[in-house]
Amino acid sequence: MLKMKTPILVYLLLLSVLPREFSAAIVEDHKHFQQFKLVYNKHYATDTEERRRESIFLKHSAFIEEHNQNYTKGLTSFELGINEYADWSEEEFMSFMSGSDEIHDIRNVMKQGATFIPPANVKLPDAVDWRELGAVTGVKKQGRCGSCWAFAATGALEGQHFRKTSKLISLSEQNLVDCTLTYGNKGCNGGIKERGFLYVRDNGGINSEVTYPYRAQQDAECLFDASAIAATSKGFVRIQPEDEYALLAAVATVGPIAVKMNMKCLRKQFYRQGVFNDQLCEERRPNHALLLVGYGRNNVTNEDYWILKNSWGVSWGMDGYITVPRNVNFGGIALGPSYPLV
Ligand SMILES: *[C@@H]1O[C@H](CO)[C@@H](O)[C@H](O)[C@H]1NC(C)=O
Ligand SMILES: *[C@@H]1O[C@H](CO)[C@@H](O)[C@H](O)[C@H]1NC(C)=O
User: Fold this and answer.
1) Ligand 1 site: residues with CB under 6 angstroms?
2) Which domains does the chain carry?
3) Does 203 qualify as catalytic in the annotation?
4) Spatial distance between the Cα atoms of 97 and 60, rounded to a whole number of angstroms
5) What is residue 102's predicted lDDT score, i.e. its pLDDT?
6) Catalytic residue among 145, 148, 179, 188
7) 321-335 pLDDT, tens per residue?
8) Which of 90-99, 183-192, 236-245, 316-325 has the lowest mean pLDDT?
9) Which of 63, 65, 66 is the pocket-test mutation for ligand 1 (most atoms within 8 Å of CB)?
10) What GO terms describe the biological role, i.e. biological process, of this protein (predicted)?
11) In contact, 251 and 234? CB cutoff 8 Å
12) Using CA atoms, how far apart are residues 39 and 127, in angstroms rounded to an integer?
């Protein structure tokens, strides 16, 4: 009991010695953190841990506030916001990215894909959003597990399965996390989405989310249930790297496309809304897989953008989505797109 009260005592002590506005700010900050804990149902094992988390939270919220003042002044194109990751340090957050291509021997995997040939004699629409066409399931959450590659793979397969059968079925990331180790994937320590497509092909299918639920950890064994196949794949198609017209044609005419992109930047951890146009955050080395679900153009700013579904839950971004600039190979988005054949 006494231990739990220590922070309050410390605050009271501080209040008695600090100038008035300053102490009011500390109380406000502390209230803000208490609210955050309540909203996101946060519990910490020890007082020390709680104080560490509060200090990370306060540092991040000051940064977000400063950025948003710039946003209000029109100095930046996107807004940030507190989300459930506000008490995670930047390093901690980045450790759940899937890692670099070198680790994963990406060349040998990509060689196994067919080549996308953009359709000839068609005019692509100015805007496409596969969410409106029913090809995209709800936003999911990878949690403390570097399994983004599995979410991008299921997302693209859900889309192609929908286009083939008119049925939208949420597919199992855990199936891919547990069962693609022999393909070279590393479960919660990263992987390649295309190995997911190859596994589904060789395995004769994948289970649904309901049959094989997500656990945000790597199970000891593969628990695939052959009597409950929800979707199948016949391999994958890769889109010519660094060709954003081909990528546009693919997402316009085929469906949601699995992509990878660089997400290593504090502003990306707290992205809330707007087109993420930030030179300071530009790095073209992809370290995170996402699902490209469409594109459009802001008719006020004339900005072309991509629409991406992320796997960080709905507290992040625009209910789990982000828009980023198009035609600049943003974050290396055009380096490794693919979709499964069904
Ligand atoms: C806000 O804008 C100023 C001026 O461009 C810049 O120096 C500062 O770093 C920006 N703050 C944030 C948090 O991005
Ligand atoms: C611009 O965009 C808005 C909102 O998306 C839309 O309502 C409006 O019709 C568009 N205007 C033009 C000229 O396309």
Assistant:
1) 63, 66-67, 70, 75
2) 25-76 (no CATH), 92-341 (3.90.70.10)
3) no
4) 20
5) 54
6) 148
7) 999 999 999 999 999
8) 90-99
9) 66
10) proteolysis
11) no
12) 35
